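Note to self: keep these together.
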Amino acid sequence: MSGHNRWSKIKRYKAVQGASKGKLFTKLIKEITVSARIGGGDPSGNARLRAAIDLGKDANMPSENIARAIKKGTGELEGINYEEAVYEGYGPGGVAMIVECLTDNRNRTAGDLRSSFTRGGGNLAVEGAVSWMFERRGLIEVKPGPTEDQVMEAAIEAGAEDVVNQGGDGFEVRTHPNDLHQVSGALEKQFKLGARRLGYVPKDSVRIQDPDKARSLLKLMDLLDELDDVQNVHANFEMDDKLMEALAQ
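Structure:
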């Protein structure tokens, strides 16, 4: 499993179990609101909104919170007008990073990101510096249980592009962004699924083995994720699972 995927799982577990659950809900509400504003409030015709609602349900967000966020997006209820912003940068060890944000003040967001990158031993880069190293994909988690052949056969038949074996954490099915809901709908009839979302998948990865660089990298990713405007942090690193888990304690 890539180090970034492992870090994402640890981050989500901490958010659901700990005091940062409120911050997780805030980020999810933003995503649901913006998704509804851009593509409409009907999940059946808005793949991004469907994925955001799925994430909310996975995090046990109350249904009334989800409904209210959708209405704010469609204009039925008054709300803050957030806009999307994607930033790029480098972390320790030359790791490429993409940071997805939803903000009502780009100047504030850029300043906060620049400060966090500096504190974490990285640097904010110009647009286009690292985005070519990633591909936009739909990502579906399949819980442990089925064999790789079973998941692969079902995923390909449903229209997926690839299946990644994540060991004890199950499988990650990758799709074209527009096919995320179609594929997840087919797979949930056969398997127990986890998160379903849109994300950035690195074309190649940087192997991080030095504990000091690994510690600095995870610190930077935590600093970025703690910012209110940051929705997702993507990075192209590989790291040993044991090292990752030891540093994440």
